[in-house]
Design a protein that fits this description.
9 helices, seven-stranded parallel β-sheet, alpha/beta, 15% strand, Rossmann fold
């Protein structure tokens, strides 16, 4: 097989949660450019712009309005995707939220909201989609972890706990499903210019502290995840399972 064909996603069908904006939108459009049809799952954000960008590459796009924190809504995401595309080859568990409060004051409501979206939805949706992939003997699941899958962070105990757990879940699923043709890996973005980091970027002192540790000398952009996402969704990564890939501009090594 030629090198370029290793990255070709033609004929593949993907679900991207949180695909209406930010990192999810960039990855959804990148997967479409590589050839995949996309089910864009969104709750609060409009996904029309993402869908239009997908279709501009000649790929199919559907928009699924769903709250992934509601476990009862998750089977419907899978059903709608299969109805539209006939199968699911790629799942990107990208939807996530963050609540910033010192640990001593972090409310249980904030804790639960973060865990429901960042962890519980990832497990349940992976479980449902994983069964489909095991039946067809192939599939790629890409979880979105974080730098806080490796570190403690400040004022984000719920988020940090959820992202540590996402890394562990990635490894647990990979250990069971790699032999069944299903690769489960994760991307751990560094400090990215997204809605989730707006508070940090607006804090000049904290912004510069973070920038000073990024070896690349800049914060990440959503487009920085496109290549890694296509790689993990494609045949190029068929022998990778359970890996948490840091895409961090060198944050962890500096």
């Amino acid at each position: 097989m030629s090198v370029m064909r290793l990255f070709d996603l033609s004929g593949k069908a993907a679900i991207v949660t949180g695909g209406g904006r930010g990192l999810g939108a960039a990855m959804a459009v990148g997967l479409a450019e590589a050839g995949a049809d996309i089910a864009i799952v969104t709750n609060t954000a409009s996904a029309e712009e993402t869908a239009a960008a997908v279709r501009a590459f000649g790929r199919k796009a559907i928009i699924i309005q769903a709250d992934v924190s509601n476990r009862d809504a998750l089977p419907g995401i899978v059903e709608q995707t299969i109805a539209a595309f006939g199968k699911i080859d790629i799942l990107v568990n990208n939807a996530g939220i963050i609540r910033r409060t010192p640990a001593a004051d972090h409310s249980y409501e904030d804790w639960q909201a973060v865990i429901d979206i960042n962890l519980n939805s990832v497990f349940v949706l992976s479980q449902i989609v994983g069964k489909q992939m095991i039946e067809q003997g192939s599939g790629k699941i890409i979880n979105i972890a974080s730098m806080l899958s490796f570190q403690g962070g400040v004022n984000v105990p719920g988020y940090t706990s959820s992202k540590h757990a996402v890394a562990g879940l990635t490894k647990a699923l990979a250990s069971e499903w790699a032999s069944k043709g299903v690769q489960v890996n994760a991307i751990a973005p560094g400090y990215m210019s997204t809605d989730n980091t707006e508070a940090l970027r607006n804090d000049e002192v904290r912004y510069n502290q973070i920038l000073g540790r990024i070896a690349a000398g800049r914060w990440g952009e959503a487009e920085d995840l496109v290549g890694p996402a296509v790689f993990l969704a494609s045949s190029a990564s068929d022998y990778m399972s359970g890996h948490v890939m840091a895409v961090d501009g060198g944050w962890l090594v500096k």
